[in-house]
Amino acid sequence: MAVAAWPSWEEWRFRLQPGEVELTYCAGLGPWGISPLEPLRSDLDMVMENLVAAAVPAILVVMGFLACLRRPDLWQAGRRAAGGLVLIAVLEPATPAYASPDACGVIPLLSAEWFATMMDAWGSTQWCLFGAAALVLVATRMTSTAPLPRPVAARPAGVTWHRPAALLVDYTIVVATFTFAVPLFLLLTGLEGFFWFHVEGGVVNALRLLSVAPDPERLIGVFFIFLYFWGQHRRWGRTLGKRLLRIRLVSVDAAGQPAKRRTALRTLLFPLLLFVPVIGPLALIADVLWVILDPGDRTLHDRLARTEVVRRIPDARLPA
């Protein structure tokens, strides 16, 4: 755990004694070429900016240890904790917006200059997290026994990693809707002068509810996202992303889709809670960490809503 906690100590030492700060200003800026990946980068940066400072890597190791105490599949818990450490190490230098040293603006994503700058940003944080992940795997392998057979129908393998992939598909659909469909609708209805949505800096960043009485655009945008997830889960048990990844949402109490209230509660907990400043990112971190500890591989919002994401409806829940 000390290896995973070292980057957090370094981060706080830098924040308390940041040293000299260099500010630059560009006059007469023209339009920048915005990458299609910019919304995703901005939202990930919002989540990642305080991840190391909040000692999440160390908490991840502790959660992996606790999971080994209460779960029979020690190797599975260890792999997830190690995978989380590696993911943080890779995303931490990849999500910031790097300013171009030769021109006003930022370095284009996935360009050769961007890769070179990102690799230059690698430091002790990455190597500590990689080392912590390796130690977690070694410790898990040394202490684990043969895993108990798990019921394939109840929790088929691969759901844990299919879920973020499905969420990425849904995120892309939401960004495309706000970028193309919504402006076209406002133009055709003559409402373009009253409402406008800019998600180039990220969907969560654009729609965050920053005050008690937020702008109408933010409320409309958040309500649309609520309808996107709640409506599809209530009607079909899956969003377009889940449909593509062949997973679906079911109730743990009965066969088929959850009830309306359960689905609404689940949608309020995720993803709508993300749009609440401070609380949203913390809730997301707790949600992800819970998967490591949960014996049923369910997220915290699924536990609270009594729902589960599976590859198919278990045979035991099908009506006779």
Low-confidence stretches: 148-156
**Average pLDDT reading:** 85
Q: Give the C-alpha Rg.
A: 22 Å
Tell me the number of helical segments per DSSP (H or I, 4 or more residues long).
13
Helix/strand-derived category reads: mainly alpha
Shape: globular
Helix content: 55-70%
- Please give the domain count: 2
From N to C, what is the helix and strand string? Answer: HHHHHHHHHHEHHHE
Strand order of the largest sheet: 1-2
Let me know the largest β-sheet.
2 strands, antiparallel
| Number of beta-strand segments | 2
Distance separating the two termini? 50 Å
Strand content is: under 5%
Task: Please explain how this structure is put together.
- With 320 residues, the protein is mainly α.
- It has 2 domains: 1-14 and 34-145, no CATH class; 154-320, no CATH class.
- It is 57% helix and 2% strand.
- It is built from 13 helices and 2 strands.
- Helix 3 (56-70) runs parallel beside helix 6 and helix 9 (216-235) crosses helix 11 (260-269).
- The radius of gyration is 22 Å and the shape is globular.
- It is found in: Cell membrane.
- Keywords: Cell membrane, Membrane, Transmembrane, Transmembrane helix.
- This is RDD domain-containing protein.
- Residues 160-305 form the RDD domain.
